[in-house]
Amino acid sequence: MRELYSGRSAHLNCVTFSFMGDPVILAVDDEADLCVLMDRILSRRGYAVTTAGGVTEALDALAAMPAAPDLLITDINMPDGRGVELAERVREKVGDLPVLYVSGHSRAHAESAGTIPVGSAMLEKPFLPNQLVEAVAKALSGI
Q1: Is the dihedral angle over the CA atoms 65, 68, 70, 75 positive or is it negative?
Q2: Is 72 exposed, middle or buried (0-12, 13-18, 19+ CB in 10 A)?
Q3: Which helix (H) or strand (E) holds 71?
Q4: Is 121 within 8 Å of 98 (Cβ atoms)?
Q5: pLDDT tens, position by position, 13-38
Q6: What angle is formed at CA 5 by the lines to CA 2 and CA 11, rounded to 5 degrees?
């Protein structure tokens, strides 16, 4: 059975902490099932994952994290803010770190709308687990 995230769910808040390895990832999306899925996929591959259901929860989670994240994964649009703004606020607190944006929109749409910087790492929903793992590895390696 292949896990596939479809991008459709109720908008529920979620905050989970899963510190099982390195590197540390802060994953933010307002869709609770995607938070759970990213945590499950990435934790199984040895990443330490903290998930949050939006910008406010992400900033609260960041303050509670025992280590600064090595990567931020964020949806581009959430009810309480935009991913690019979250990335700026996280970088203000922890310094420069790579960001992987996730969205149901295409890269071309996101870039032309100005919701992500041109050339940013981005993963389109829906995605398969191996696509998430590959995108995370690329973002962490700076490719």
Answers
A1: positive
A2: buried
A3: strand 71-75
A4: yes
A5: 444 444 444 799 999 999 999 999 99
A6: 150
- Tell me the pLDDT band of 44, cut-offs 50, 70 and 90: very high
Tell me the three state secondary structure of residue 27. Answer: strand
Distance CA 27, CA 35 (A): 7
Find, among 108, 101, 142, the residue nearest to 125 by Cα.
Answer: 101
Contact 44, 68 (CB under 8 A): no
How many residues are recorded in the chain? 143
- What's the predicted TM-score (pTM) here? 0.86
pLDDT tens digit sequence for 89-138: 999 999 999 999 999 999 999 999 999 999 999 999 999 999 999 999 99
The candidate with the shortest Cα–Cα distance to 77, out of 42, 108, 114, is: 114
Q: Beta strand 48-52 with 77-78: parallel, antiparallel or unpaired?
A: unpaired
Three state DSSP letters for 76-136:
CEECCEEHHHHHHHHHHHHCCCCEEEEECCCHHHHHHCCCCCCCCEEEECCECHHHHHHHH
